[in-house]
Amino acid sequence: MPMLKEIATLFPYFRRYKFRYLAGFMFLAVASGGQMLIPQILRQAVDIMSAGNFESGVIAVLFRNLLAVAVCISAARFGWRYFIHGSSRRIETELRGRLFRHLLALHAGFFAGQKTGELMARSTNDMYAVRMASGMALVALADGVFMTLAILVILFRQAASLTWYIILPLPLITLLIIMLGTVVGKRFKKVQDVFASLSGQTQESISGIRVIKSFVKEKYFLKKFGAENEAYLRANIDLVRLWGLFHPGITFLSGLTGVLLLYFGGKAVLAGTLSPGLLLAVFSYLEMLIWPMIGAGFTVNMLQRGAAALGRINAVLNEKPAIVSRPAGRKGSPGEDLSVHDLCFRYEAGLPPVLEDVGFEIPAGKTLGILGRTGSGKTSLVSLLPRIYDPPRGTIFLGGTDILDYELSSLRKTFGIVPQETFLFSASISGNIAFGAEEELPEEKLAALAEISTISRDAKLFPQGLATQIGERGITLSGGQKQRVAISRALAGNPHILILDDALSSVDTQTEEKILAGVLEYRRGKTNIIISHRIRALSFCDNIIVLEKGRVSQRGSHAELLARPGLYKDIHTLQITGEQGP
Questions:
Q1: H or E segment at 547?
Q2: What are the chain's domains?
């Protein structure tokens, strides 16, 4: 069964907390056993009073016994909740941590096909369903089975002839649970899927609020959100409509047992074959049987929900990281000299290549510039160097060793990358800069890094300087300010190789030249790669390559490329003409 297959993935956690679960079920048995003693005490009291042998001392003893049982039940209930619910909370925490660690290990291509809101839903809403399946569902199952069997044994021992009549509706309750229970999981999965879509829509709208407002698209996104919200409502109503049949149906069928008891039990009392106290006890036991029946519905519902949620979580956990360290990968700091030989790369089989026969060398301590039109493969090239995507073996070497042979974390620590689309965390400016360092940075170091990127100039205008909080994704900063913070962040890590991927596209040319001069002076003797559309920025480089349609069409120094016809010279002419004006 699909449900059992998914629930089986929790077995390793159950084994880990088996003693906690065992203690919890022992307390649960004590609580349920105590509940079943109460009708017997009431039976004795009623029989004593109905026989006219009323003695206050006897009643006092029964009252004391009833009070002691109630105290034991209360203590046992605390015990099973502490151990069983506590274990389910621990499982939820561990599973969420495992999911998050796995997400961090997955390759960039996985996230290209996923919505952030959907992944968040799997980390929150689905985890709640798993917690209920590993906690309350097991309580309902164990308690239901234990109480049903125990109560039936008591009833058959004390009123066998009457019990045969009053348990007639019970098979109908079981049939109702089986019929409706299998559909619950499918509808709950639909609810979770729609919730994930709703979360994704909400997250996307909030993240893109500036674009929405600038294009005056509030009504469009409100309508789109309303459609998702309505779909979520309909999915929930479909589930609630079905689940709503459980409780009334079980209650109705359980009520039939009460009707049968009043008829057959009343006749037995009048005939003198059944004592009034036993009739009360049987009625109490039948009331107790309602919980196992309802509990069976709860169990099916929660297990179906948990299985559906686990299926969505396991779909992520079963994704294999496409980029991993090779066995016995080389650790330690790679060298700074980089060479690329006959590099061909495509993102997926069947797609056209984005890079073909690319080759170049960067000696340690030198700076390479890369120029190319949009879509020429520049970003794809620098994404292969730290293995954001895997290159073919034997094409990229660092320190004379194939980058595929390095331990992944050691390789990636070698590079500091500043992309064109900068991501900043919801923290202070200084906190974002310090993120790039492996140890705490002193204030003077932070100030020096901010000075190199010139973000210090802007920070003087902020309320708290570098300590100013910049909001989610740095929403309070301009594009140029974000890029400069990102440059300081990359410098904070002091990488062996710094890559600026069009990282100054949002600043003016004068500021760009000042920043590049400061960066290269700060990194004197270290290797750098600068991607830019501006020839002035590339003039700082020792060597330059020009990419066209994924191939290297030109290579040489700034002066050499200007001396011969080609894309580099054409762009330089256009930019010089644009600066001079008509």
A1: strand 543-548
A2: 2-317 (1.20.1560.10), 338-421+496-580 (3.40.50.300)
The residues, ordered by sequence, that sit 6+ positions from 435 with a Cβ below 8 Å of its Cβ are 425, 427, 489, 492
* Category of 566 on φ-ψ map: left (φ > 0), alpha (ψ -120 to 50) or beta: left
Which residues pair with residue 527 across a beta bridge? 497
Cα 240-241-246 angle, rounded to 5 deg: 85
Q: How wide is the angle at C-alpha 240 spanned by C-alphas 91 and 180, nearest 5°?
A: 85
Q: What is the pLDDT of residues 59-81, one digit of tens each?
A: 788 888 889 999 999 999 999 99
DSSP string, 97-119: HHHHHHHHHS-HHHHHTS-HHHH
Nearest-10 crossing angle of helices 170-207, 246-260: 160
SS3 state of residue 86: helix
191 compared with 88, residue with greater pLDDT: 88
pTM for the model? 0.72
Measured between alpha carbons, how far is 66 from 69 in angstroms, rounded to an integer? 5
Query: Residue 301: CB partners within 8 Å, gap ≥ 6?
Result: 181, 184, 188, 243, 246
DSSP secondary structure of 565-579: -SHHHHHHHHHHHHH
Q: Are 306 and 95 in contact (CB under 8 A)?
A: no
| Overall average pLDDT of the 28-42 stretch | 89
The answer on pLDDT for 289 being more than 70 is yes
